[in-house]
Amino acid sequence: MSSEQMDHPPFDVKATGTAIDQRHMRKLPIDTLPTELLEWVIGLGATQVYRSWSPEIKWICEWRRVCWKWAFVIDHCSALWSYIVVENGGGHVPTQLAKSNGAPLSIRLRVFRPTPQVEERIRLLVDNVHRWKSITFHANLNFEKASAMMASTPPILESLAIHWTVIPPDSKFFNPPSPNLRSLELSDLAIPSNIQPIFGLEELHLHRIKTLEDGTAAPISVRKVHQFLQASPGLQVLELDEACSACASDETLQPVDLPDLEKLEVYRSPVLHLFRAEHCADLNVSLWSLQERLPPAAWTTVVPTLRRAKGLVVEVSNHSLTIVCPLGPPTIQLVLRFEPEQGTADPSYSILEEILQELENES
After folding, report:
1. Buried b / exposed e across 3-28, counting CB within 10 Å, b at 16+?
2. Could you give phi then psi for residue 172, rounded to 5 degrees?
3. What is the rounded radius of gyration, in angstroms, for the C-alpha atoms of the chain?
């Protein structure tokens, strides 16, 4: 160490002040970003992608500690505070309502053991029902109180999701909940058998739904699925997972035309004959444990999509038929697994012949 360095210790203000001033005068690259872009970067950093695409409040609070500028940007970005999660602990609802500054709210209720604190948080949300843009209900929610929550129709609600519960016949969720509702997701729950579908949806997700009649739960009927499709001919996204148990033999169910459908995912739901979607760009169909042939109308959606494919890989094996498009677009995966009664011929080859014949007719 030189004598000059020894004369000025490392933390001597006189020795280091000039260097500190110069360093503070130099802007870091991230400090040159426009505020809108910095908000977007912070939002990505606060998002747990594997859980949702929305920023989580605990990470928002962590990012506030980076520097004063980030804290200022976060405090004045209403969108970063507008995703509200209410869990058993209650959440940060008062703070988020204040800092979101009137912005539309995305709400997720994950309440398994309601407490007075949680109920107070929900009451605060109900007072802001006019701001609800999307809401998701998870598990053990008291639907008597939930129905009271929906007594005031959320005017801008676009997305509604309900999971893991039972919807009673007097629920107001389908009354309808909003004139602007465009996305509905029902998953792992039971609905009344006489429930009426919501009209005008653009996205419909039905996962493992049962209907209740006289206290007995049964798989949702093919006719009920058909009603949901009839109510929303403008669907763009359709996901059906165990939506019904068997094919319908009722010939009065005419296929619903879905000209705008872009994405179709069907798992263990033999309902392809209920609709036509000739312009589908993303098709993923997996039907397992099939015990009967699908009606011929089932291929009215599959065939036009196959015809647009640049190349197909077809595999036929014992009681199994698989067709995929490895090149894309469109994205195609069709998997059929049969479990016919003993002594019944394997339908895989004959179904492939049907599809090839339809392709030839289409061309």
Report:
1. eeeeeeeeeeeeeeeeeeeeeeeeee
2. -95, 5
3. 28
Q: pLDDT tens-digit profile of 39-71?
A: 888 887 776 544 454 567 777 888 888 888 888
Are 243 and 271 a contacting pair, CB within 8 Å? yes
Contacts of the segment 297-300: beta carbons below 8 A, 24+ positions apart:
297/255, 297/272, 297/273, 298/270, 298/272, 298/273, 299/272, 299/354, 299/355, 299/358, 300/255, 300/273, 300/276
* Secondary structure tally for the chain: helices H, strands E: 11, 15
Give the pLDDT band (50/70/90) at residue 12: very low
Tokens found for residue 207: 């996962």
- In angstroms, the Cα distances linking 85 to 9, 53, 55 are 51, 13, 10
Q: Which of 4-8, 146-150, 331-335 has the lowest mean pLDDT?
A: 4-8
